[in-house]
Amino acid sequence: MSAPVAPASSLAHLPVGVFAIAMGVGGTAVGWHRAVETFDLGVAVGQALAWAGLAVLAVALAAYGAKVIRHPRAALAEWTHPVKAAFVATIPISMMVLAIAFLPMSEPLSAGLWWTGAGLQAIATVLIMRTWIADARIETIHVHPAWFIPVVGNLVAPLAGVAHAPAEINWYFFGIGSVFWLGLLPIVLQRLFVAGVIPPRLAPTLAILVAPPAVAALSWVRLGGAWTDPLAMMLLGVVIFQLALLAAQANALRRVPFAVSAWAYTFPLAAAASALLAAYGAGATAFAAWVGALALTAATLLVLGLGWRTGVAVARGELVKPEG
Q1: Average pLDDT score, the chain
Q2: Among 14, 6, 5, which residue's Cα sits nearest to residue 323?
């Protein structure tokens, strides 16, 4: 007997990428924490966004948990899919990003989010990379910038992990994230340069190229480095280049139809803002402050705009329909 087919509108079609919403909101909260610290602002935008991100995470966990229980085959197919598997890592990363956002507000809540997220991140990295190695279906065309997500999650871990875990655990995550980001970079660039234009639904993932150098720089300093170190300064240069490259593609990207993947713009921009504003606070030129402020403004406007558009999509049932 064949397996039942999910109806046209069903929880079975809810994408795991919905956790990128919590990532984007939480990352923007962290960016605002940094802006308040850097410019001595008297605003509570970061706190409001942190609580909003936690609410989004709770709703996403409930909805996706229901999908796993009611449609386990659909969830398993997503976790082992050549293109979609990378987005599974948005689950633990969203927890660790919110752990950073809540660190100055509630250390116990931050610790709970971090330990849960870090444990899941360690497991997800192994399982996703095993899929990439063992799945004979995977071809160059399946590679996309979101493949960085499971790797970048390891670089995110030390940002709150320094406050919650022994040093060797944080260096473990940093080492994996650094080595495999650099290992994946030529593979992803080859896909982008010579294997054809990326599909429209995945076009927003081009912004993810901004995230690894930004998060790596933040983690390096968090682990004891300084913004004046050659490594940190080099990474900041790459961040600025990636922002310029993203801006050069803005006209084409804004014409891409809405999909949950559009939230891929938010976390990288927020991470870039956090890195650049932190560098400015440590003595970098005003150029870093201007670029960081622009990145944070863009991330905030995107969170507001995409939040409204996602609400419309939820009301219309678009998030539980099969991809077109």
Answers
A1: 92
A2: 14
Nearest to 37 by CA among 303, 273, 216: 273
Q: d(Cα 143, Cα 205) in Å, to the nearest integer?
A: 11
Asked if 290 and 273 touch (Cβ cutoff 8 Å), the reply is: no
Q: Is the pLDDT higher at 80 or at 110? A: 110
Q: How far apart (Å, rounded) are the C-alpha atoms in residues 215 and 153?
A: 9
pLDDT tens per residue across span 249-285: 888 888 888 888 899 999 999 999 999 999 999 988 8
Q: Which two tokens stand for residue 127?
A: 């399982």
Compute the radius of gyration of the chain from its Cα atoms.
19
CA distance 223 to 227: 12
- Map tokens 């996403």 to a residue: 60
| pLDDT confidence band for 1 (50 / 70 / 90) | very low
Q: Which amino acid is at 298?
A: A
What domains, with CATH codes, occur in the chain?
A: 11-320 (1.50.10.150)
